[in-house]
């Protein structure tokens, strides 16, 4: 194509800086400042994609973020590939490679185009109607539908770019840097407010900045020149931060907003390394000023989607901003004065305008007079009734509108053209306003929704508030800013404004055609291929709610969220259904306003920072010794330590046997530890645990069970009395944070009179547990001065002592049933004490064991794990732990609930032991337990909660909960599995050493 | 996301706080004296108002203090926050 489509240089592009880029594998040139869309248009390329459903050829339609058609894939088959990028927004850079989406083998010849001819059998709701029967076939249908659906390809490699988040607090946030936004930002900042001004474009000034017409003047200067001076001034204001290429994605309640700042997408690839690509701004603004502007409406007529059909304002923008002519034979089609502005602008640049087709019959303005003076033919009271040209428009057909605008009359006139601009008036961009919870009202005069009720401290100004012309915008702005910011004066009082714009508009949502509607394709939603015909069909089929019609026809559900066509869809629905526009409401505008990448949303929370984990002070030793890890809450806990080629089962069997035969060692540092002090500490423990604490002697330990107020087991652990008014409580690893929270809640809200102080010390201590028949010998080597005799240091007691010079607490407590010692030492000495124990235990084959072996050993003893054998429906009585519930205490958390009618039922699920008939058969945890599997429906009695093969008992053991299980000792039950039934017998949950002889062995 | 005025720390973001259900429900002093129905009333029954509601909140990732809040659940407007033990505002 020729370069003569570059008509005139523009100050927005740098013609001395040539940039090469590839589109669909062909190399083209553009200039610095071009968007991909403007560079393609300058090369004569309109056809850039295929539509979603019918695969119709589609061209660039707009010059902004509302673009429905020109969505492309960047850098296909690389790690930086990105689908659904709007060609109208991406600035070209050296090395840019873009390709069309939704077409195969190429955009010019697309096999899917056959859908266009099949369209009579692809009506609205086609997929819903066709693929429902038989229902069982859906999986097969889905495979093919998914293959042909979807726009673009997601990347398969990790994202090489960096993203970050930033919090911003400001007094006033101004969204949009058009003429209203610039005035608002300057006024706010000059009055001392910390102000933030954002705009999605790379430049400031909105659409006014490229207007160059004698018809629009402020204080006798052309509006763009006046605005340039304002922009020059605001850049010098200190307390005003300006961010371009920054799009506000979401406006939440309480003036909390999210915006994406685009930092590198316009740079050549080699300049992006080690730079932040996008920054997500989390903005808290005391006041928000929306100056988000408005979007030009298309017109809805037959075949209104051919490449070469653009918004009239887009044609003007391409010529003014980028010096690009979209066509050489331009025709404009309008229902208002906007297209005349475009015509004058094109005319000034020497771009040919063939004709203007105006819906309005009798209309006159200074703009129209100027067009007529230049001998451009105006067809007043006419409509376009059809367009021609497959890959690009080459001809239109026009007809006269009837008086009521519902029909076309007279004969057809053909006009040759290569570009058609359409203007259906303007829609205020109220998306962010409604996201914030704002309510709209409908203005009948020009058929627009405008802000009505503001939910927070915010205003909308300029065309997003329905003030479309220069005089409307500027007349009231000073007063509105004064009221909103509570200031006395602005620089914008008594502006002298010249604005020659006739505001009359002839709004016809669906323009008539000479054909019946079934034979036409008047597109409402370009991206999703929804036509006016589809909307009418949905209404005929009984849909009435706007939200239902939207989903049935998919109108407004593309990546552009129907920014162009939603108003027309509403209009056509209200006309067809005979309701008023205001009554229908609108569909919900949801964030984000323009799509965000996942990278922007997650920011730095990737890789090891995706979900941070906690390590014990001995973690590195576990890693060095090839431990496999298990996640417990945020902790990484050693799970088991496989030797050479050991399987998990083999490792756990070896570890379990060693712990009972000689000695085992466990890193228990993750257990929650809460330091409790105060004169009422004992009374506090009395109230939070089921058992009594007042008489616990100093230096003794006690196991406690904590309930919720509903009587269900919440947590358990051993608490030690360190001194008269000083205890240390241990909690389960996963429960540490919530237990502390619960204790604080009761202390602060129910019992503020108690003198008790709680401190979490979980991270402050390393806890090393040495167990087994040889544990005493090992500890005596590590701490030679400590008297370990059963008399001086019996089970369930503690000693303050020292290892070398390091203070530590040793508790003689056991979760395995073996004699065992728990050393608590300041966290940073944890590793060295662990090493000492390993060294001392070498001669006894001390064996490190992980959580799996710990679970097995405690199951042999019938000790519960809260959260595994309980599930917030188990009382202590259900667990056969009635012995721990004090009968004497007047009250404790959950006491009253233990004798509610429901908790005293005999047939509650109760904890029992299970022994399999075949001692080698290990049950699956979670398996159902039944009495009789032959009767249907089978009654479920309960389920298996813990199950292991015990190397010490040489048989399979399991814990489970069974309805009425307490009274079922010796009962035979059945575990039905997928292809077998396992016979089991109910037993006591304690399988090993019922007499607790091993504790003192 | 709301901004919440913690009576101890001042205005902070909602993500620092946790909600704790309806406020001003006092734990009975003598639970053993209560019938099943009376205990169930304390244990389970909570209001779920569309409109102005009294709620308990805790500044979990801050001072860890519990306090009360008057919030309009229909528009998330926080009318007041006040310390535990203080009387709710009358207006």
Write up what this structure looks like:
The complex is a heterodimer of chains A (1001) and B (91). Chain A is α+β, with helices and mostly antiparallel strands. Among the domains of chain A are: 3-117, 2Fe-2S iron-sulphur cluster binding domain, sarcosine oxidase, alpha subunit, N-terminal domain (Ubiquitin-like (UB roll)), CATH 3.10.20.440; 162-294 and 428-499, 3-Layer(bba) Sandwich (FAD/NAD(P)-binding domain), CATH 3.50.50; 329-422, FAD/NAD(P)-binding domain; 862-1000, Probable tRNA modification gtpase trme, domain 1 (Gyrase A, domain 2, 2-Layer Sandwich), CATH 3.30.1360.120. Helix content of chain A is 21%, strand content 29%. Chain A has 23 helices and 50 strands. In chain A, strands 8, 9, 12, 13, 14, 15 and 28 form a 7-stranded mixed beta sheet that branches. In chain A, strands 41-42-43-40-34-44 form a 6-stranded mixed beta sheet. A 6-stranded antiparallel beta sheet of chain A has the order 46-47-48-45-50-49. Chain A is elongated. The model of chain A has no long low-confidence stretch (mean pLDDT 92). With 91 residues, chain B is mainly β. Chain B is globular, with a radius of gyration of 15 Å. The model of chain B has no long low-confidence stretch (mean pLDDT 94). The A-B interface holds A 252-254, 256, 284, 437, 455, 709-710, 741, 744-745, 748-750, 752, 890-891, 895-897, 900-901 and B 1-3, 18, 20, 26-27, 30-32, 34, 36, 39-40, 43, 56, 58, 60, 64-66, 75-76, 84-85.
């Amino acid at each position: 194509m020729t370069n003569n489509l570059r008509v005139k240089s523009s100050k927005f592009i740098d013609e001395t800086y040539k940039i090469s880029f590839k589109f669909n594998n062909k190399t083209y040139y553009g200039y610095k400042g071009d968007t991909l869309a403007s560079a393609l248009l300058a090369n004569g390329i309109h056809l850039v994609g295929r539509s979603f459903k019918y695969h119709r050829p589609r061209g660039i339609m707009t010059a902004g973020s509302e673009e429905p058609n020109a969505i492309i894939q960047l850098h296909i088959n690389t790690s930086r590939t990105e689908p659904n990028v709007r060609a109208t927004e991406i600035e070209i850079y050296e090395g840019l490679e873009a390709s069309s989406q939704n077409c195969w083998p190429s955009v010019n010849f697309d096999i899917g185009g056959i859908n266009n001819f099949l369209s009579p059998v692809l009506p609205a709701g086609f997929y819903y109607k066709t693929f429902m029967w038989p229902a069982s076939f859906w999986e097969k249908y889905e495979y093919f539908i998914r293959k042909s659906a979807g726009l673009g390809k997601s990347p398969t490699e990790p994202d090489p770019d960096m993203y970050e988040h930033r919090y911003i607090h400001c007094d006033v946030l101004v969204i949009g840097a058009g003429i209203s936004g610039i005035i608002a930002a300057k006024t706010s900042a000059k009055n001392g407010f910390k102000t933030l001004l954002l705009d999605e474009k790379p430049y400031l000034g909105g659409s006014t900045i490229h207007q160059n017409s004698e018809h629009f003047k402020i204080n006798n200067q052309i509006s763009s020149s006046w605005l340039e001076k304002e922009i020059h001034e605001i850049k010098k204001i200190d307390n005003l931060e300006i961010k371009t290429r920054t799009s506000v994605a979401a406006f939440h309640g309480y003036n909390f907003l999210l915006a994406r700042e685009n930092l590198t997408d316009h740079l050549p690839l080699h300049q992006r390394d080690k730079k932040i690509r996008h920054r997500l701004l989390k903005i808290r603004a005391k006041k928000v000023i929306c100056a988000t502007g408005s979007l030009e409406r298309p017109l809805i007529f037959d075949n209104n989607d051919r490449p070469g059909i653009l918004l009239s304002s887009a044609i003007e923008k391409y010529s003014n901003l980028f010096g690009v002519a979209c066509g050489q034979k331009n025709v404009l089609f309008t229902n208002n004065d906007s297209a005349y502005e475009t015509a004058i602008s094109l005319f000034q640049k020497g771009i040919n305008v063939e004709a203007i087709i105006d819906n309005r019959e009798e209309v006159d303005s200074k703009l129209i007079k100027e067009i007529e003076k230049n001998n451009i033919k105006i067809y007043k009271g006419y409509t376009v009734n059809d367009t021609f040209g497959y890959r690009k428009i080459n001809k239109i057909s026009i007809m006269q509108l009837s008086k009521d605008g519902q029909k076309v009359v007279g004969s057809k006139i053909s006009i040759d053209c290569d570009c058609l601009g359409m203007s259906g008036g303007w829609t205020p961009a109220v998306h962010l306003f409604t996201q914030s919870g704002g309510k709209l009202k409908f203005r009948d005069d020009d058929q627009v929704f405008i802000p009505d009720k503001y939910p927070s401290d915010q205003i909308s100004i300029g065309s997003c508030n329905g003030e479309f012309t220069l005089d409307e915008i500027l007349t009231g702005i000073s007063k509105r800013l004064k009221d909103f910011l509570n200031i006395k004066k602005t620089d914008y009082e008594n502006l002298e404004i010249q604005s020659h714009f006739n505001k009359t508009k002839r709004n016809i949502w669906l323009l008539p055609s000479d054909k019946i509607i079934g034979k036409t394709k008047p597109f409402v939603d370009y991206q999703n291929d929804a036509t006016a015909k589809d909307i009418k069909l949905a209404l005929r089929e009984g849909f009435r709610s706007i939200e239902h019609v939207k989903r049935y026809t998919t109108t407004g559900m593309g990546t552009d969220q129907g920014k162009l066509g939603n108003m027309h869809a509403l209009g056509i629905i209200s006309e067809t259904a005979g309701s008023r526009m205001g009554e229908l409401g609108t569909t919900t505008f949801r964030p984000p306003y323009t799509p965000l990448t996942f990278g922007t949303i997650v920011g730095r929370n990737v890789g090891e920072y995706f979900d941070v984990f906690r390590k014990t002070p001995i973690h590195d030793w576990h890693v060095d010794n090839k431990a496999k890890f298990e996640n417990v809450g945020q902790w990484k806990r050693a799970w088991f330590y496989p030797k050479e080629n050991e399987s998990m089962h083999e490792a756990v069997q070896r570890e379990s046997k060693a712990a009972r035969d000689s000695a085992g060692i466990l890193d228990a540092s993750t257990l929650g530890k809460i330091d409790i002090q105060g004169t009422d500490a004992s009374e506090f423990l009395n109230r939070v645990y089921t058992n009594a604490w007042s008489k616990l002697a100093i230096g003794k330990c006690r196991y406690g069970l904590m309930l919720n107020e509903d009587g269900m087991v919440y947590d358990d652990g051993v608490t030690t009395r360190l001194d008269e008014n000083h205890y240390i409580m241990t909690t389960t690893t996963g429960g540490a944070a919530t237990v502390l929270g619960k204790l604080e809640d009761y202390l602060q809200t129910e019992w503020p009179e108690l003198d008790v102080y709680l401190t979490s010390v979980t991270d402050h201590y390393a806890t090393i547990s040495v167990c087994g028949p040889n544990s005493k010998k090992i500890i005596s080597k590590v701490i030679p001065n400590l008297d370990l005799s059963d008399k001086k240091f019996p089970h369930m007691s503690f000693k303050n002592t020292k290892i070398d010079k390091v203070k530590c607490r040793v508790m003689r407590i056991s979760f395995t049933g073996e004699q065992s010692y728990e050393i608590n030492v300041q966290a940073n000495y944890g590793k060295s004490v662990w090493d000492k124990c390993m060294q001392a235990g070498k001669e006894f084959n001390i064996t490190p064991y992980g959580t799996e072996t710990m679970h097995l050993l405690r199951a042999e003893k019938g000790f519960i794990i809260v959260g595994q054998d309980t599930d917030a429906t188990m009382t202590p009585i259900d667990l056969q732990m009635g012995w721990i519930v004090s009968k004497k205490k007047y009250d404790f958390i959950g006491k009253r609930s233990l004798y509610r009618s429901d908790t005293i039922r005999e047939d509650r699920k109760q904890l029992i032991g299970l022994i399999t008939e075949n001692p080698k058969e290990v049950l699956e945890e979670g398996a159902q337990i039944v009495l009789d599997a032959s009767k249907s429906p089978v009654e479920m009695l309960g389920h298996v909660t813990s199950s292991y093969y015990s190397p010490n008992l040489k048989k399979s053991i399991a814990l489970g909960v069974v309805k009425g299980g307490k009274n079922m000792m010796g009962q035979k039950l059945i575990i039905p599995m997928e292809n077998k039934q396992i016979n089991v017998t109910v037993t006591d949950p304690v399988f090993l050493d019922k007499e607790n002889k091993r504790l003192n062995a | 996301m709301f901004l919440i005025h913690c009576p101890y720390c001042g205005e902070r973001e909602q993500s620092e706080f946790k909600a704790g259900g309806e406020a001003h429900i006092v734990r009975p002093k003598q639970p053993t004296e209560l019938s099943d129905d009376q205990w169930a009333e304390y244990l389970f029954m909570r209001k779920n108002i569309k409109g102005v509601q009294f709620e308990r909140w805790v500044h979990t990732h801050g001072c860890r203090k519990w306090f009360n809040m008057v919030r309009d659940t229909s528009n998330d407007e926080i009318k007041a926050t006040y310390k535990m033990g203080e009387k709710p505002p009358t207006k």
